[in-house]
Amino acid sequence: MINSIILYISDNIWLITTISIFIFIISLLMIPYLLIRIPHDYFTKSYVKPEKIQHPVLKFLELVIRNTIGLLLVVFGIIMLFTPGQGLISLITGLSLIDFPYKKQVERKIISIPKVLLVINNIRRNQKHSDLLID
User: Is 134 domain-assigned?
Assistant: First the structure.
């Protein structure tokens, strides 16, 4: 089993490298954009998400698109933990887009890691946005 995995990786090293570079470039472009869109008080207990879309079909479509993008970011974030890229930041951004039980607790736990918060706030400051607040 392990030999077949090693053989598969060695046969497809150029494909894996190309995908890794592609994910890295996309993450460099998308992650800062998504991080500045997070409201500065998103990780506080008092934050209430505003309802922007009222029509049920559009609301469902937004839910599907947001969860799909979030899931892709989580998958790419996990991949980038082992390849070049911004793995933790991609994971956090993806988790903030996906709807699942205990979402806020997981997000707060990850965002409260000092180095993660520092990197995110530095990206936000470079884009002239305020730092994220945490309870």
Answer: no
Cα-Cα-Cα-Cα dihedral sign, residues 67, 91, 131, 105: positive
Residues whose CB falls within 8 Å of the CB of residue 36, separated by 6 or more in sequence, listed in order: 123, 124, 127, 129
| Cα gap 96→100, rounded to integer Å | 10
Note whether residue 78 is domain-resident: yes
Does residue 131 belong to any structural domain of this protein? no
- Is residue 23 in a domain? yes
Number of folded domains in the chain? 1
The tens digit of pLDDT for each residue in 102-117 reads 888 887 888 889 998 9
Residue 64 phi, psi (nearest 5): -65, -45
Question: What residues make up the domain containing 64?
Answer: 2-126
Percent helix, strand, coil in the chain, to 5, is 70, 0, 30
- The model's pTM is 0.61
